[in-house]
Design brief:
Structural class: alpha/beta
Shape: globular
Oligomer: single chain
Number of strands: 9
Number of helices: 12
Distance between the termini: 21 Å
Largest sheet: 8 strands, parallel, barrel
Bound molecules: ligand HAH
Radius of gyration: 20 Å
Strand order of the largest sheet: 1-2-3-4-5-6-8-9
Helix content: 25-40%
Length: 335
């Protein structure tokens, strides 16, 4: 089927790169879709600390290497994800040999060594990195997330990570990446963080807007305002993890109702309308948006099946469980 449809990537070549998150399995199972429709790949998990560096002095590069080699063979760009985060990081990073909290100097050395080792290995293959992921708070009770990084090293850990990354891979573009990035309060915190880093001369080149959106939320105007606000900093913008849950945020529940919807024609049309509207806005801002990456390829392999509700099937992507183009695909390519 897919052979007869246009290439999403080709359609968007005048606008921005189109990417997808992949995993060790989907590189094979979704290969045809990937090669035909996408310019860029990101490791969904394989470059996260717990996967690539599960223990002190033990790196596991095999899966990340395979992804990079796939991209090289197919002439694809790689977005690196992610170096410093509060999730999917071994607890041992913050502990000493006796299982007690490690000294700040030890944690700092581990951070430096991790960033330098991973960046150095891929400096010729990975064009940009999400250096720090999700470091600001969600609710209105502070600024930076009280992560173990912050507790051990204070706010400085963020600047430090960017400085080391730049030193080791001066050609790589370095991003700060976050979710709920369009919410007015949180987007101000992200703006403030990045503005502060730029003021201190920290080598940061862009903001990653994750784009884990829903059918009815965020409103287009809210997305537009966030894009324009971030762009006013003069940094590059990437949409880094786009997917649109078919579960809405009606009544402010965050789409967390447990009930599973049937994916019928009505829902397919609503998703198509939403994707059409989103891409029309993104095309309008193509002067500041350089890349749009989907968090997955097709609906048979999506983290949304387990987030925010475990075991609730979702249909957030442009290709269906059989890898055929959905109505939403057509609303993104036909304009
Ligand atoms: C993203 N977080 C992460 O950046 C990505 O690495 C992961 O695979 C999926 C989503 C989004 C997120 C979260 O981790 C926790 C609460 C809300 C949103």
């Amino acid at each position: 089927m897919y052979r007869n449809i246009p290439s999403l990537g080709e359609r968007y070549r005048p606008y921005f790169r189109i990417g997808a998150a992949v995993n060790a399995k989907s590189l094979h199972t979704h290969r045809d879709l990937l090669v035909k429709h996408f310019h860029s790949v990101t490791a969904e998990n394989e470059m996260k600390w717990e996967e690539i560096h599960p223990e002190d002095r033990r790196y596991e590069f095999a899966k990340a290497d395979a992804l990079v080699e796939f991209a090289r063979n197919c002439g694809m760009y790689v977005r690196g994800h992610t170096l410093v985060w509060h999730n999917q990081t071994p607890a041992s990073v913050f502990l000493d040999d006796l299982g007690q909290p490690a000294a700040a100097s030890v944690i700092e050395r581990r951070l430096e060594e991790h960033v330098a080792t991973v960046l150095d290995r891929y400096k010729n293959d990975i064009g940009c990195w999400d250096v720090v992921n999700e470091a600001v708070v969600d609710n209105d009770t502070g600024f930076l997330r009280e992560s173990r990084w912050l507790q051990a090293l204070g706010d400085e850990y963020i600047a430090k990570a960017f400085r080391i990354a730049h030193q080791v891979a001066p050609g790589a573009l370095l991003f700060y990446n976050d979710y709920n990035e369009t919410k007015p309060d949180k987007s101000e915190r992200i703006y403030k963080l990045v503005a502060g880093l730029l003021d201190q001369g920290v080598p940061i080149h862009g903001i990653g807007m994750q784009g884990h959106w829903m059918l009815d939320d965020p409103a287009l105007g809210e997305i537009e305002r966030a894009i324009d606000r971030y762009a006013s900093l003069g940094v590059r913008l990437h949409i880094t993890e786009l997917d649109v849950s078919v579960y809405g945020n009606v009544h402010g529940t965050g789409g967390q109702s447990k009930a599973m919807l049937p994916y019928d024609d009505v829902l397919a049309r609503r998703l198509a309308k939403r994707y059409g509207d989103l891409f029309s806005l993104l095309r309008d801002r193509a002067d500041v948006i350089e890349s749009v990456t989907f968090w997955g390829i097709a609906d048979d392999d999506t983290w949304r099946d387990n987030f925010p509700v475990r075991g609730r099937k979702d249909w957030p992507l442009l290709f269906d469980v059989n890898h055929d183009a959905k109505l939403a695909f057509w609303s993104v390519v036909e304009f």
